[in-house]
Amino acid sequence: MTTTHSSAIFRPKDAAAFLGVALSTVYRWERDLQGFPRRVKLGPRVSGWRLSDLEAWLDKQAATQRMEGAA
After folding, report:
1. For the chain, the helix, strand and coil percentages under 3-state DSSP, each to the nearest 5
2. Element (H, E) at 63
3. Closest listed residue to residue 59, CA positions, set 70, 51, 48
4. pTM
């Protein structure tokens, strides 16, 4: 089975690096921001975010900022 780029799972440190923020920020966003992607469970003590979910969330944030800037 081959894994495509969009089906990659990012562990918390990788997600933080991808988003360009601190790990604590990712956890705070997960807790406080409505619409932030939910982690997927990979095992009893392992979870991560789908790359496609993080990319979609970033796209939505960028679109929202563009709309607010145009107003």
Report:
1. 60, 15, 25
2. helix 51-70
3. 51
4. 0.81
Instruction: Output the tens digit of pLDDT for each of the chain's 71 residues.
Output: 444 566 799 999 999 999 999 999 999 999 999 999 999 999 999 999 999 999 999 999 998 888 777 65
Q: Residue 35 corresponds to which amino acid?
A: G
Show the domains of the chain with their CATH numbers: 9-70 (1.10.1660)
Residue 37, token pair as written in the block = 């992607």
Closest by CA to 54, choosing from 12, 25, 14, 15, is 15
Cβ 15 vs Cβ 51: under 8 Å: no
